[in-house]
Amino acid sequence: MFSNYLIGLREGLEASLVVCILIAYLVKTDRRDALKPIWTGIGVAVALALGFGCALEFGSQELTFEAQEALGGSLSILAVCLVTWMVFWMRRTARHLKADLHGKLDAALQMGTGALVATAFLAVGREGLETALFVWASVRAAGDGTPRPLVGVALGIATAIVLGWLFYRGALRINLAKFFTWTGAMLVVVAAGVLAYGFHDLQEADWLPGLNSKAFDISGTIPPDSWYGTLLKGIFNFQPDPTVLQVTVWLLYLIPTLALFFAPVGFASGKGKVADEQGSRPSKAAQPSQSSQD
């Protein structure tokens, strides 16, 4: 449940910051007439993400077991690739997000209503589709048959909406650079478990060999149905009897990815650190836009 809460919080907060930047810019430039198209684009993006999630869940139920495992494994790997790209992208470019969105919004204001709808849709829709895919893959990996993963996602998104509103109102100050760094690192750990489970799905679909080659089996020490086994599975997608391929994939993804993620080269400079420090102390009048630069 915690891993899914983290997914909802991280992705939801990114989307909330985007919405705050768009709305705050229109309000500050006295273009409240453009708010309706912006909300329309946001609504369409949310509906598309929900529809995509439903299609993944209910569409896969009509497939054979092998086809379900092949689809689940393939989409799990795709979800990990997208999330990995997202955490690195946000780490590198978050401080420039405000300027990029303002430029796109200025161009859309000149082009008309349809362009405003498209701008909001594209800005929020990417986050929504990534969230739907990664949540679906994470829920499959959890595989406990309970609604707890979905509850965790819903709570994470609700928290993100509240935080976004507080940012907009200037009632909350937080170092977003550190927030996105540490939540990004935790998402990499979650993604490693989803990736390993995805390869296990492909083994069960007979796409990859080695299904019966176990790296170890500690089911007697950590029973999967125990409270601590469930906790480990819910947070890290831990499996007490993984295959050799699963452990290999987990290690080959997690160690290099975390090393690159925390590497200072290419991610932080003196100028960037100054921007981060300034963004952590935003003024009330420009809270959403300056916070998002972190």
Keyword list:
0% strand, 76% helix, 11 helices, disordered C terminus, 294 residues, mainly alpha, elongated
Your description of this structure?
This protein has 294 residues and is mainly α. Helices cover 76% and strands 0% of the residues. It has eleven helices and no strands. Helix 1 (2-28) runs antiparallel to helix 5, helix 2 (35-60) runs parallel beside helix 5 (113-142) and helix 3 runs antiparallel to helix 7 (176-204). The two termini are 28 Å apart.
What does the main sheet amount to?
none
Question: What is the general shape?
Answer: elongated
User: Spans with pLDDT under 50 lasting ≥5 residues?
Assistant: 265-294
Order of helices and strands: HHHHHHHHHHH
The Rg value, from CA coordinates, equals 21 Å
Tally of alpha and pi helices: 11
Q: Given the helix and strand composition, which structural class is it?
A: mainly alpha
In angstroms, what separates the terminal alpha carbons? Answer: 28 Å
**DSSP strand count:** 0
Q: Which range best describes the helical content: under 10%, 10-25%, 25-40%, 40-55%, 55-70% or over 70%?
A: over 70%
Write down the overall mean pLDDT.
80
Beta content: under 5%
